[in-house]
Write a sequence for this structure.
C-alpha cells in the first residue's frame, strides 16, 4: 500500500522551526519570518489531491486538533488522519499523570468523532467519505 500525507498548513512548520534555531538577526531567521504564514490548508490540500485521482491513499495531517477536524478530513477524502499537537499538549500539561491524560484525550477524540458521525447521519467512518457532508472553509 502506498499513501501520501498532504500535511497542510497548521501543523509542524519546518521553516519556522529552522528560523527559531537560527540566530535572531540571521538571514535564515528573517526568511523564516517572511514565510511564517506560507502554506496550503489541509482542506485545500485534500481537495487538490483528490482531483488527481491517485492510485494510492491520501492521508491528512496539519492543524487537526480534535475529532471534528478528523471527521472533516475523512469526509474530504483522507483515508487516515494524523494529529500530534493535542497529544503533546496533554503530555506537557499533565506531566504528573500522563497516562490518564492520554486516555482522557483518546476518549474525547473518539466521542467527538462519534458526535460528528451522528450529526451527519453516518453509521461508520467509511460513510463520511461517501457522502457530501462538508464543504471546505478556511479558518480565520
Amino acid at each position: 500500500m502506498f499513501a501520501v500525507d498532504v500535511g497542510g498548513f497548521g501543523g509542524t512548520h519546518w521553516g519556522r522551526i529552522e528560523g527559531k534555531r537560527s540566530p535572531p538577526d540571521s538571514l535564515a531567521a528573517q526568511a523564516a519570518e517572511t514565510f511564517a504564514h506560507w502554506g496550503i490548508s489541509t482542506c485545500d490540500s485534500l481537495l487538490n489531491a483528490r482531483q488527481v485521482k491517485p492510485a494510492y491513499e491520501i492521508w491528512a495531517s496539519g492543524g487537526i486538533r480534535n475529532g471534528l477536524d478528523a471527521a472533516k478530513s475523512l469526509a474530504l477524502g483522507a483515508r487516515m488522519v494524523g494529529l500530534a499537537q493535542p497529544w503533546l499538549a496533554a503530555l506537557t500539561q499533565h506531566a504528573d499523570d500522563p497516562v490518564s491524560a492520554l486516555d482522557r484525550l483518546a476518549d474525547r477524540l473518539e466521542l467527538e468523532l462519534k458526535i460528528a458521525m451522528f450529526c451527519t447521519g453516518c453509521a461508520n467512518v467509511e460513510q463520511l467519505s461517501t457522502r457530501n457532508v462538508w464543504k471546505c472553509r478556511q479558518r480565520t
